Amino acid sequence: MAHPRAMLSAMKGLATASGNPLAGGGGKNGLPADFLLDAEGRIRALHDGAHADDHWEVDDVITHARALGA
Fold first, then answer.
1. pTM exceeds 0.70
2. Do 42 and 36 touch, CB atoms closer than 8 A?
3. Under DSSP, is residue 5 helix (H, G, I), strand (E, B) or coil?
4. What is the C-alpha separation between 52 and 66, in angstroms, rounded?
5. Helix (H) or strand (E) holding 24
6. CA end-to-end distance (rounded Å), the chain
7. Do residues 52 and 60 lie in contact, with contact meaning Cβ atoms separated by under 8 Å?
8. d(Cα 67, Cα 59) in Å, to the nearest integer?
9. 48 pairs with which residues across the strands?
10. Closest CA to 32 of 57, 13, 50, 58
């Protein structure tokens, strides 16, 4: 079982989150996103996940990095 104080914090977070974080839709409590940064810290490639396990595979990251000349 989770510690009661941890569960209380989780419930407070869910209560104050905008929208329904359990239904997805992005944001800090929603779907995952992968991004590739360049040397200056700019986002050069972005993938917004369609479900909880939707992410880039290692080969995808390598392909994106090569396309950017990294």
1. no
2. no
3. helix
4. 26
5. none
6. 46
7. no
8. 12
9. 33
10. 50
